[in-house]
Amino acid sequence: MVQFVICSFCVFNFPIFPIMLLQRNTLFFLYLFVLGLLSLSSCSHQYYAVDAGHSLRLQEKGDIKASGGIFSGGQVGYSPKEHIGVTAAYTNSRTNVIGNAFGGGFSTPVVNPYSRTRSVSGAVGYYHFLDRESGRAERPLQMREGVLFDVYGGYGRGWNQNVYQFGGVANIQFHKFYIQPGLHIQNRFFNISFMARYSRLQYLKGTILGDAGAQAFQETAEIEENPSFDLIESSIRLESGTKQIRGFFSLSFLTTANPSVVNFDGADAQMGVAIDIDDLFLKREKKEPKVSKDKPTKKKKKKKSKKKKKKRKKRK
Fold it and tell me: Which pLDDT value is given to residue 315?
């Protein structure tokens, strides 16, 4: 896929590390934004879009976190017990097909062709947070420095739709089982996450409506003959902001161990917002206990004892 080749070339050849060292943050984020634009188009129809994975960084009991991308879905997670996390996610990816928009000829297309993949997934996992600031007081706006390790296993189900230039539509369903380990390095205002997901993808059934062309029938036949695929989806995610609200940018790449004529969307970029729901809405500062009106304070007790002493002296 063209966008995957371009993105890979940019990642390994563009002088990204000198930019970071020179603290040219504006150019760095502009570079990431360009990569995001490249992932929105392709030269061919796709039958699967790479998944960014579970990246909420649950790290203590009672954590409730959520994140949402711009036109790309979102995820939510909760930790009911120490070291245990439960997450759910919805993804929505659309790629405009530009390479064969005119079918290789001079005819004007009826519609603009595109590929769309939508999926829902849920996972249960284990996490362990190495707190570098253990024993120190919590800061109201800053994250705790440390390293988080986690691993999640889950199940997902999805739908893929390809719309062709002369109005034909190909729909196919799939499901997958996966396991995802992750490493997250966290400081007070910045976080970087590395995740790798191994997925066993299996297509279920598909339909073709209208004039989809010979290529659509060929690819559908290939999927029916070999419906299972082994995928490795790798992601890197950058977050910056306060403890309660942060902006994020993620890049994801996909490789498959199965040689096939079926095309997969090999790269994806997302931008959005991450929120710590429990810290923002549920955690309240402990109020100082109010002194009861019925029980006298120490000062009142002292005043009463002085009055009693004066009365005793007068009687004498």
Answer: 59
Q: How far apart are CA 216 and CA 28, in angstroms?
A: 39
**Rounded CA gap, 23 and 16, in Å?**
11
pTM of structure: 0.73
Q: How far apart are CA 126 and CA 128, in angstroms?
A: 7
Q: Which residues contact 27 (CB under 8 A, 6 or more apart)?
A: 19
What is the 3-class SS of 126-189, one letter each residue? EEEEEECCCCCCCCCCCCCCEEEEEEEEEEEEEEEEEECCCCCEEEEEEEEEEEEEEEEEECCC
Q: Which residues pair with 62 in a beta bridge?
A: none
Q: Which residues is 184 bridged to in the sheet? A: 148, 193
List all residues 6 or more positions away from 265 whose beta carbon is below 8 Å from its beta carbon.
Answer: 1, 39, 42, 46, 48, 49, 50, 93, 95, 115, 117, 254
Tell me the pLDDT of the chain averaged across its residues: 77
